Amino acid sequence: MEPLVQFLYLSRIAGEKPFEVVAEVAVQARRNNARVGITGVLVFDGAHVCQYVEGSLAEIDGLIERLKRDPRHEALQVLHHGPSEGERLFARWRMGYLLLDDGQELTRFAALRGPAAVRAVLDQLPLVDLEP
Ligand SMILES: Cc1cc2nc3c(=O)[nH]c(=O)nc-3n(C[C@H](O)[C@H](O)[C@H](O)COP(=O)(O)O)c2cc1C
Question: Which of 11, 80, 86, 112 is most exposed, with minimal Cβ within 10 Å?
Fold first, then answer.
C-alpha cells in the first residue's frame, strides 16, 4: 500500500466575500479530491480556514503547491506535514466541510505543530457527522 501523508494548515480567506469563496472552494475540493483519493476536512470560522488532508505523497505534494499559489486565501501556516503512522482518519469522506458557530476561532490552533496539532484540531471540533 502507498504510504499515507498528512497535511494540516491554517489560512485566512482573502477578499470581501469569504463565505462565497469557501462555498466555491469546498465544491472544488470535493470534486478534485474524490478523483485522486485525498480525504480530509475543511473547517471555516467565517474568516479563517483550517484544512486537514491525507493521501498519497504525490497527490498531497501537488495539492500543497496549488494551495500555496491560490490567491483566494493568504497567510498560510503549516501546522503539520508528514507521514501518517496508521490508517486514514477520514476513510469514508472525500472532503468534509464544517462551518463553526460564531465566536469559535480557528486561530486558537495557530501555535500547535506536528501530529499533536492534528489530534488537537480533530478532537476539539464537532466532527459528529465526519467520523470515518
Ligand atoms: C482554502 C482552500 C482549500 C482548498 N482545498 C482544496 C482541496 O482540498 N483540493 C483541491 O484539489 N483543491 C483545493 N483548493 C483549490 C486549489 O487551490 C486549486 O485551485 C485547485 O486544486 C486547482 O485545480 P482545478 O483547477 O483542477 O480545480 C483549495 C483552495 C483553497 C483556497
Answer: 86
